[in-house]
Amino acid sequence: MRAQRSPAELLVGLDVADDAAVYLVAPDIAIVETLDFFPPIVDDAYASGAIGAANAMSDVYAMGGEVLFGLNIAAWPEDAPLAQLERVFQGSIDKVAEAGGVVAGGHTVIDREPKYGLAITGRVHPERMLLKSGLRPGDGIWLTKPIGTGVLTTAHKAGELEAADLASAIASMVTLNRAAAGAAVDAELHAGTDVTGFGLAGHAHEMAETSRVRVRIRSSAVPLLPGAHTHAKRGISFGGLERNQAYFDDGQKVRFAVSDGATRSLMLDPQTSGGLLVGVPRAHVEAWRRACTSRGVAATEIGDVVEGSGVEIVA
Fold first, then answer.
1. How far apart are CA 150 and CA 169, in angstroms?
2. Is the CB of residue 215 less than 8 Å from the CB of residue 207?
3. Which residues 6+ apart lie within 8 Å of 172 measured at CB?
4. pLDDT at residue 2 in the model
């Protein structure tokens, strides 16, 4: 296959490892385009739709953008109740409306396993984007949501999760990264991504690699969802976690200075609709704190950026 030639207007595309495609349409406006879909991870159809929408929109927020509209992507079994699919759609419609956007259409196919997500169109100012490549030595590393959704939803599928812990996980997953993205733009930050399938350490590695720096994460500072450490300590395992461990936990991409198995699992736990991971230059810390406070964002400083490469997880 011949390599395609990207137009100058394509600011972020296949040749740049980032969260969404960005296309310049005017000097001060760029379109952000992304899509995401996956099988349900909770039983409640309405919550599944809301989670799918929040997760799909997260890539727009990870670029510092705003959501405009979405298109449904759905796969549904022939023998499954259509009323359940309608609930999925309603959860998504309500969540996109909360983001200030609208669901404008979509496409559904028949499949044995239900799947749902959206293609999302947003906009961003080309000079105010958050990029994975924007980290610099001396930056602090901040996280805007607790982690643990992969471990918790796996425990839920096995019937081993307390109702309160499931409710906490769902509440986190349906929380938009809209306020966090707004705070990052307010504070004039330039480095960010969202924490999803590669887990906290995996997405930190993406930022470290594209920025050509080393990211150090203090595992004791990383906020966890209720019940996450308990279930990780029990040795829970599943496909997404195993793939992350096989790829990232090689002593080079991610280096662990902690031996606790639960901590190692949680650092690579694949997240659904996780928070933003941002780099905050020291000169911008106070502006970032003020922006988070004014927008109701509970951000936590979990590490820093130094010269070098890869990710180092310390106690």
1. 9
2. yes
3. 145, 146, 149, 225, 273
4. 55
- What residues pair up with 26 in beta bridges, in sequence order? 29
For the whole model, what pTM was predicted?
0.95
What are the extents of the domains in the chain? 10-124, 132-314
Listing from the earlier edge strand, what are the strands of the sheet with 214-218? 191-194, 276-280, 140-143, 300-306, 214-218, 311-314, 254-256
pLDDT tens digits along 163-198: 999 999 999 999 999 999 999 999 999 999 999 999
Question: What's the N-to-C CA distance of the chain in angstroms?
Answer: 46
pLDDT at 312: 98
Has residue 9 got a pLDDT over 80? yes
In the numeric block, which tokens belong to residue 185? 């733009």
Task: Supply the pLDDT for residue 1.
Answer: 45
**230 C-beta neighbours (distance < 10 Å), count:** 18
CATH code linked to domain 132-314: 3.90.650.10
Residues 231/235/237/240 CA torsion (nearest 10 deg):
70
Say what the pLDDT of residue 3 is: 56
The domain 10-124 having CATH identifier 3.30.1330.10: the answer here is yes
3-class state of residue 281 by DSSP = coil
pLDDT digits (tens, 9 = 90+) for 235-293: 888 999 999 999 999 999 999 999 899 999 999 999 999 999 999 999 999 999 999 99
DSSP annotation string for 292-314 = HHHHT---EEEEEEESSSSEEEE
Structure tokens at 136: 């610099």
The token pair at 286 is 């106070």
Instruction: Output the CA torsion 124→281→309→16 (10° steps).
Output: 10
